[in-house]
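Hello,

I think I submitted the magnesium ion job twice by accident. Can you confirm which output corresponds to this input? Input:
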Amino acid sequence: MASHNLKHALFCAIVTLIISYPILGFNLESQGIDVTLEGAETSTVLGVLLAAVIVFLFQLFRDNVMGSLRQLPAVNPLANRKPMEQSKRLKLESTLLTLMVIGALIWPFIASRGAVDLATLVLIYIMLALGLNVVVGLAGLLDLGYVAFYAVGAYTFALLSQYYGVSFWFALPIGALLAALFGLVLGFPVLRLRGDYLAIVTLGFGEIIRILLNNMTSLTGGPNGIGGIPDPTLFGMEFGRRVKEEGNTSFHETFGIAYSGEHKVIFLYLIALVLAVITAIAIRRLMRMPVGRAWEALREDEIAAKSLGLSRTAVKLSAFTIGAFFAGFAGTVFASKQGFISPESFVFLESAIILAIVVLGGMGSQMGVILAAIAVTILPELAREFSEYRMLIFGAAMVLMMVWRPQGLMPMRRIHIELKRQE
Amino acid sequence: MLVLEDVHTHYGKIEALHGVSVEVKKGEIVSLIGANGAGKTTLLMTVCGNPQATSGRVIFQGRDITRDMTSNIMRSGIAIVPEGRRVFSGLTVEENLHMGGFFNTKSEIRKSQDHVYELFPRLKEREHQRAGTMSGGEQQMLAIGRALMSKPNMIILDEPSLGLAPLVIKQIFEIIGKLREEGITVFLVEQNAHQALNLADRGYVLETGRIRLHDTGRNLLANPDVQNAYLGG
Ligand SMILES: Nc1ncnc2c1ncn2[C@@H]1O[C@H](COP(=O)(O)OP(=O)(O)OP(=O)(O)O)[C@@H](O)[C@H]1O
Ligand SMILES: [Mg+2]
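Support: Only one job matched these inputs. Its output is below.
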């Protein structure tokens, strides 16, 4: 046992050296056209050696370390708590949600402009994650190209406003519906695939949309993107210093207050908040409706679901389309917030982050997904000072989560439906 | 009620059914017995359109359903209790039943649910338990109950006695007898040949994708070939 551990630890330490020394231990110095290889500073080399020693010690005493790690969840009082009764849980959840919404309503009036802007982004991610949660968490379809529908929503607004001067409020439903239509059309051929195959094909579709946007230069401006996307208006009141569109009035003049750039940011935040709440409520409703049951049934056992007369294609398509719809919503808000969009905003990494939010939150659980969206969006901002290490911190956080709470922050506890009896 | 005419079914290039003809008349219990791999499940799944027959015809209640989609077939008055039960393990008993009545109105669901609980009082006791945590016998009851929720004219059962204790098997077979009294036609696939043939009006013996024998249940039980091959001599 001990000798086995020793061997293993030695091996791991050597692997650490082999991997890190060539990368960190040398520097390429260019002198004119010559490139010479030089040893790195002593401190770096020492660091590499130290890392190897740490790996060695960790592996040697791994059993002890992991043993104490495993006891850690007990520190978290929520982990081993007995599941609450459904009615109590639902009550608690709705109280919590109400408190969160109230807090969110107060937020813009106490926080700085930057914080409000960040909160808007959080809300956009909440919408995205709630939408993807339907597809991945509830229907069990691994969609790696979700960002495509986000892009459709954003570009719909951008293009409509550029070519036809359509306002935010008109573009919002059009963007969402168009994204849903894309979901329907793309979903049709791919949904007969399962698991890994579905994941790969959706990944491909996500990329195709992005590449299309990049290359249809005459329409979308290609990599240059589209700018000058208008802000939303409030009953025909604009938030800019000067009124841009004929027939509109300006917000600060109507109310006789001094112009402030903050009004616009707050207004956009409030719109995002309302839309996020609508998204959450709508999806919650859907989950309790027969179509929500059908998603779960199909995820649990496809053959059984089919034997009951459910059409696999119809059920899956509905999940895919509804997910896409909310991504379109989020996309429109995003375009309006940024004022400028380019294909670069819709890379695969975005899909990955949204998926990470869903998984971290605990697949299927709305509350968990909302918390995870907040955490995943805000943490990198807080860690901005260590911006070089942001991805590293993000990765480490993910790994730790998987060790401590593999089921996600708040795993889904199913709400079961009881049919009311008429006695 | 259900007629299969010279049905051939393929999995890819492999033919699993080599021209099978079976008839189930209204109000009957018909049992299909056969060894492992004979193609019993394949035959039932062909009726459900998954996979579809490559040639031949499947007729249900006078309508040709050979090329119909599974979802349409399963909504036309036929219900199946699939091999291995396949209850939705994360859903509660009640929710499982509701899935069975997916296309019915709420009041219909309520009625069928009460009816199922009458047949299986055990399910009523476990109404809010997750199906996955129930015993094999209870799950089988649930699978049958779920199939009944759509108020089918005909129910197809694929090895309902699989892996169950004798006492539970007896219960299940009693329920199947009751279903006939309610006017539901039963098509039953079983390894448990003795009980299946005892209960059945008529029986078929399937061997490697072909119907070998076809007679009344009683005659098949008395048939020496059947006794040797399926009743342990
Ligand atoms: N999905 C499939 N793909 C390919 N071949 C299959 C498939 N399902 C069944 N088969 C083959 O078809 C033949 C009949 O299988 P089937 O499941 O119908 O037998 P069975 O009579 O139901 O057996 P058992 O009593 O073990 O359930 C077998 O040779 C089997 O290997
Ligand atoms: Mg079988």
